[in-house]
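check this one:
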Amino acid sequence: MRANLFITCLVDTFFPQVGESMVGVLERLGVDVRFPVEQTCCGQPAFNSGYRADARSVAERFVSVFGEALSQGEGEESYVVCPSGSCTAMVKVFYKELFHNEPRILEKLRRITDRTYEFSEFLVEVVGKTDVGARYDGVVTYHDSCHLLRELGVKDAPRELISSVKGLEFREMPLHDSCCGFGGTFSIKFPKVSVSMLDEKLDSITGTGADTVVSSDMGCLMNIGGAISRRGIPVKVMHLAELLANTGKG
């Protein structure tokens, strides 16, 4: 089985340890990991800001790069795997809007999206694993990112993976599925609304008594983690891949 990594801009630029953790988990499970070096952004920032032509240009590159990567894996199970529900949703859901009147590209896109998965969904639904050999001694709560939950419908997979980590106590937070207030440019355009939503999310997190909050999108964790740091709240923020990469050794 081959996983062609689709690494997001935030992970590539600010949180490379998330990508490294994902590689570690996949290789531990015997997955052949590849990284198409020609990849760039999925185009979501431009798309959400109304710059459809720019988004299309970037999306065409994605289709070309990952279409080629998947074709090289013919003869074996080959997939595209991403550590972000947001960017995965851009490809699987919103690319169809960009190319709705271009059947040639839509056919190429269909072959890609059928084999494109967010990280937790890939582990549970494709690899068939919930226990990946991880250990973490702590109390963990989980934040549902909007795109992963609402656009992709992935709710159970991250929880199954978290609950299978040895030494870990999982506590569901109230309002676990409420937005953290980030939303990319939303937090910039509507800062007061964003902060109010973030305050509500922080209350939900701290109310569990957890020492660690986990999510599947670094945009959410960057927003939550920034507020936690500024306010001196003793809670760690961690991407799911980082949690699962932890074996408690060394």
Summary: The two ends are 29 Å apart (CA to CA).
